[in-house]
Amino acid sequence: MSKLVPPHGKEKKLKPLLLQGAELEAEKEKAKKLKVVPMTSREASDLIMLGIGAFTPLDGFMGYDDWKGTCAEYKMADGTFWPIPITLSADKALADSLYVRNLDNNAGAFHRVSDDAVEEECKEAVLAWRFLVEGPQSAESLDARIEAFLSQRCGATADFEVDDALAKLERLGVARREGATWHAVPAATAVQVLAARWQESLATA
């Protein structure tokens, strides 16, 4: 009986990902049509470790579920112990270009429209807080100031959804209403409130 320590993971089987022969050539041809993703020296080292099986049982860079489990509990999504995240970084522009952007199908179109809508909603809330933190004011005053700002900066007329933006800030706990006047919490307090909500979201995701 071998006295070697068995490979890590539930299958106890070494998983080298380095390809050879015809399989390697086929993947190289496929790669010519894919977007080039720049890698740091650490990520290149991780890729080598994946190739030789040193990161068994990983079958590639981690996805969201494995990354989250590793950061929170040192466990991958299937419960396998893993102490550090093995991920491939990308800036937002690159990530957006890689993330379900095939608009030839309904799912891709849906995700694109959905993501754009969420991003715009976030911008509205941030803009409202930025002007509101300067001092208490009514919704009407805030609306007029933001629309004037957008007109000056963008050179176009904008109909800012101030009620929707203020409702978001109130739900997040970074603004409150007293009669007809709205107040924003200071920046330091807003950071603490949002950080707590983010941790809560991660814990329940």
Question: Explain this structure to me?
Answer:
The chain has 205 residues and is mainly α. It has 2 domains: 74 residues, Sulfate adenylyltransferase (Roll), CATH 3.10.400.10; 96 residues, Winged helix-like DNA-binding domain superfamily/Winged helix DNA-binding domain (Arc Repressor Mutant, subunit A, Orthogonal Bundle). It contains 8 helices and 3 strands; from the N terminus they run αααααβααββα. Strands 1-3-2 form a 3-stranded antiparallel β-sheet. It is elongated. The mean pLDDT is 83.
Quick recap:
With 205 residues, the chain is mainly alpha-helical.
Largest sheet: 3 strands, antiparallel
Number of domains: 2
Identify the overall geometry. elongated
What is the helical fraction, as a range of percent?
A: 40-55%
Order of helices and strands: HHHHHEHHEEH
CATH third-tier fold name of the largest domain? Arc Repressor Mutant, subunit A
Cα-to-Cα separation, first versus last residue: 44 Å
The first-level CATH class name of the largest domain: Mainly Alpha
CATH architecture of the largest domain: Orthogonal Bundle
Put simply, the count of helices is 8
Strand order, largest beta sheet: 1-3-2
Total E-strand runs = 3
The CATH homologous superfamily of the largest domain is named Winged helix-like DNA-binding domain superfamily/Winged helix DNA-binding domain
Average pLDDT confidence is 83
Roughly what fraction of the amino acids lie in strands?
Answer: under 5%
Low-confidence stretches are none
Rg, Cα atoms, Å: 24 Å
- Category by helix and strand content: mainly alpha
